[in-house]
Design the sequence.
């Protein structure tokens, strides 16, 4: 049977959005059938905010490697393959490295990933290992790692797949297309976490392209959120030593700085910081009340919405982007929950029933 004859399966975002993407018949499509993630109504959060405001969650943690990075990586790796590259490199707080490794290996390339030693969540590190990346952990943070990989990719035959690679943002813009298709129009507000600010830039590109093509008739206000200990875009100031529990967005000098400010201005949007405590509250709320397990960085979008909710007019609809899956960071989950957990019970019906309150 031919491997390409699977007609019932979602083909992946390059195949689905080909006319919108810089690919040709010659581009080898490297895909794990990413995209087409659900837009989930958040009933509990909507009720909590009230005033007939509808909140939806774009759960991009359901992509093949568990984060939105797959949208950009299918493009970046396909283009690298087209250009004959044999190796790729990235700096990463974890998700980019997992995604780069998976797609590079699928394309038969080497994947080098530079990570801040000790600051990458366990699930992401596990992925890089399993996908066969060559992992280089540095005594330094993401910003320092990015500087090194930029220089290495200029000097040696390795292709850079961080979000300075324009193909990444092209792939990521498709999330905005999907939201418009699901809602029948763009939302009034988009709440999104920001690290390097590639994703907010990509979404804005996607919303604008669909507006121009008359697939929607409005643009959302773009609401970007950062962790308080790591909020260079909110404070308009580089941070030497960013700190936050949301290690994915522990970034002090975002590469898409100018783009992010442009998006804020053009969309009449807002940037705001949320504390680690607010992030964890939103993280727990999503789990306990919506049945959705995202990673801490992703919960920043919901924490941000809850913080600025009074600024949202009644009857609006709001999409919060959940960029990564909760399973990425099991340590955070084990440390931050209100679970009822009785351990060491004897294996007897009476004991169990009693603990259950019967
Ligand atoms: C879950 O993996 O930068 O603003 O190296 O993993 O586009 O940078 C991750 C970023 C949000 C921020 N949510 O997105 C990396 C990396 C999650 C993330 C962001 C990241 P950008």
Sequence:
């Amino acid at each position: 049977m031919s491997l390409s004859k699977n007609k019932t399966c979602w083909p992946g975002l390059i195949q689905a959005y080909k006319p919108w993407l810089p690919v040709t018949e010659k581009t080898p499509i490297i895909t794990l059938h990413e995209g087409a993630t659900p837009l989930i109504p958040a009933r509990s959060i909507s009720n909590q905010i009230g005033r007939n405001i509808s909140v939806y969650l774009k759960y991009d943690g359901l992509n093949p490697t568990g984060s939105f990075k797959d949208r950009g990586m299918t493009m970046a790796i396909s283009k690298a393959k087209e250009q004959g590259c044999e190796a790729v490199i990235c700096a990463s707080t974890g998700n980019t490295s997992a995604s780069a490794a998976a797609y590079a290996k699928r394309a038969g390339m080497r994947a080098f990933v530079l990570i801040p030693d000790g600051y990458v969540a366990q699930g992401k590190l596990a992925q890089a290992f399993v996908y066969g990346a060559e992992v280089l952990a540095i005594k330094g943070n993401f910003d320092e790692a990015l500087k090194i990989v930029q220089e290495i990719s200029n000097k040696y035959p390795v292709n850079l797949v961080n979000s300075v690679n324009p193909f990444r943002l092209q792939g990521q813009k498709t999330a905005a297309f999907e939201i418009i298709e699901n809602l029948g129009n763009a939302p009034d507000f988009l709440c999104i976490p920001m690290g390097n600010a590639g994703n907010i830039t990509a979404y804005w590109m996607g919303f604008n392209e669909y507006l121009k093509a008359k697939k929607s008739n409005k643009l959302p206000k773009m609401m970007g959120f950062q962790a308080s200990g790591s909020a260079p875009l909110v404070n308009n100031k580089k941070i030497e030593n960013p700190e936050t529990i949301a290690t994915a967005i522990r970034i002090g000098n975002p590469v898409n700085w100018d783009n992010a400010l442009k998006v804020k201005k053009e969309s009449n949007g807002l940037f705001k910081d949320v504390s680690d405590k607010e992030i964890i509250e939103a993280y727990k709320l999503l789990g306990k009340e919506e049945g959705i397990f995202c990673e801490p960085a992703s919960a920043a979008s919901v924490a941000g919405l809850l913080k600025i909710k009074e600024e949202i007019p009644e009857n609006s609809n709001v999409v919060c982007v959940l960029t990564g899956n909760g399973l990425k960071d099991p340590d955070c989950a084990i440390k931050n929950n209100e679970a009822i957990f009785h351990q060491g019970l004897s294996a007897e019906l009476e004991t169990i029933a009693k603990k259950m309150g019967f």
